[in-house]
Amino acid sequence: LRDAEGGPVMSAKGTALVNRIIEELERIRPENGFHTSAGNKVTRGRPESLRINQDDLPLISVSTSSNAPGAAKPKTVMKSREVLVTGMVDANDRDYEPELDELDEDITMALASLLAMDALPNTTNVSISGGDYVHPESGSNTAGVTHTITISYPLTKNEG
User: Fold this and answer.
1) Angle at 45 between CA 120 and CA 66, to 5 degrees
2) CB within 8 A of 71, min separation 6: which ones?
3) Over its length of 160 residues, how does the chain's per-residue pLDDT go in tens digits?
């Protein structure tokens, strides 16, 4: 993206971090050594608010659940952002768990690359938890697995 003068558009730090997570998840394709092609369908948004067609599965949704401020100093506040990554598969009248296991492993491996040195610049801590399975509830034809990424980073006010 470019601004009116042709320079790069600066995103909020939190948005830039989520964009980086999405980039890694978009690599989930068999040609990159993954089980599934879920990287073709990565979307920003909470899973419960997405309109999902069976043809769209498997897919991955990425949404921020919180972005709490922490310790503050003059001109700097530490933020702790929790990002939920939810992979979904078709669970319509079939044994979906093997496919859900594959998607869980794919998401785990893609997110693990974000733990490498400088994978998320200007952050102070990155942790990944979860792998929580969500089985279909009445009326639902999808099953999912959710991972939580917690990223701490400084937010600094530039004066000038």
Assistant:
1) 60
2) 77, 78
3) 445 566 555 678 999 999 999 999 999 999 999 999 999 999 998 877 677 778 889 999 999 998 888 877 888 889 999 999 999 999 988 899 999 999 999 999 999 999 998 899 889 999 999 899 999 887 788 999 999 999 999 988 775 5
- Strand, helix or coil at 115? helix
pLDDT at residue 159, rounded to an integer: 57
Number of H helices, E strands in the chain: 2, 5
> β-pairing, 125-134 with 59-73?
unpaired
pTM tops 0.90? no
Buried-exposed string 35-44: b where 16+ CB fall within 10 A, e elsewhere: bbebbebbee
Retrieve residue 112's tokens.
């693990």
Q: How far is it, in rounded angstroms, from Cα 96 to Cα 89?
A: 7
Strand partners, 60: 42, 87
Residue 128 · residue 146 · CB < 8 Å: no
Contacts of 108 (CB under 8 A, 6+ apart): 128, 131, 147
d(CA 137, CA 143) in angstroms, rounded, equals 9
